[in-house]
Amino acid sequence: MDIETRELRYFVAVAEELHFGRAARRLNMAQPPLSRAIRLLERRMGVTLLERTSREVRLTTAGEVLLEEGRGALEAAAAAVRRTQRAAATTRRLVLALKPGGDAGLLRSILDRYAATPDAVPVELAFSVGERAQMVRDGRADLALLHRPQNDLTGLDCDDLHTQEQVVVLPEGHRLAGRAAVSMADLSGETLPRWPEARPGVTGYPISDTNQLMQLILLGRMVAVLPESIRDRLPPGAVCRPVTDAVPATLVIAWPRESTSRQVAAFVAASSPR
């Protein structure tokens, strides 16, 4: 059977809100047509997606699967539209997503090498801390500079560019600041940050940008394990120490797994270490 994106959008709204009234308001429609649409979808699929009582709405196992798959399908459809529209634009360009200071000093040489390739197009830089990977997935960007293992690379292909050891950033006067080096076990009980693009399962205090992180570190509210290039950007009052057993951080160039763009392939080739 075929499912329309409209039906998926309806179901995802209900599944995320777990309330037909809120979902209807979110979709800017009346509740009765939304309820009928979901029941029709269940009949057509031959499965129960939602358990309904007078008090609550719950997802069934089948509903949980459709929620996950439906989100991906809606994102893929939106990305296809964006990429198609951008491909038809009069002026072709590549959009590279990165966070400020997140290129390990490599970007200038990468841009120069790419500009020297045949059929190179202008490269627009889109700065973001929390949405770089998602920007590539949904078609707002063609490529992104990300870090492994910190970032969620689901749905993306990538090439390694540069690997760094990691350090822990601490406020002066912290119990570990006098050490020459620390281990991950030494950080047990410390509050650590969780970035918006962290891979699934990572826990910690939600952080939206580096300035916020440094402010919290200086206030003694948390510590952070970061690539050692952060040494050059530490604010007064913060120190860093090597973490001997932390997994190294690898800067990668990432692009959509299904990409067939010659420009993307040329940029990736220009980015890769020679």
From TrEMBL:
<dbReference type="InterPro" id="IPR000847">
    <property type="entry name" value="LysR_HTH_N"/>
</dbReference>
<dbReference type="InterPro" id="IPR036388">
    <property type="entry name" value="WH-like_DNA-bd_sf"/>
</dbReference>
<keyword id="KW-0805">Transcription regulation</keyword>
<dbReference type="Pfam" id="PF03466">
    <property type="entry name" value="LysR_substrate"/>
</dbReference>
<keyword id="KW-0804">Transcription</keyword>
<dbReference type="Pfam" id="PF00126">
    <property type="entry name" value="HTH_1"/>
</dbReference>
<dbReference type="InterPro" id="IPR005119">
    <property type="entry name" value="LysR_subst-bd"/>
</dbReference>
<dbReference type="InterPro" id="IPR036390">
    <property type="entry name" value="WH_DNA-bd_sf"/>
</dbReference>
<protein>
    <submittedName>
        <fullName>LysR family transcriptional regulator</fullName>
    </submittedName>
</protein>
<feature type="domain" description="HTH lysR-type">
    <location>
        <begin position="3"/>
        <end position="60"/>
    </location>
</feature>
<comment type="similarity">
    <text>Belongs to the LysR transcriptional regulatory family.</text>
</comment>
<keyword id="KW-0238">DNA-binding</keyword>
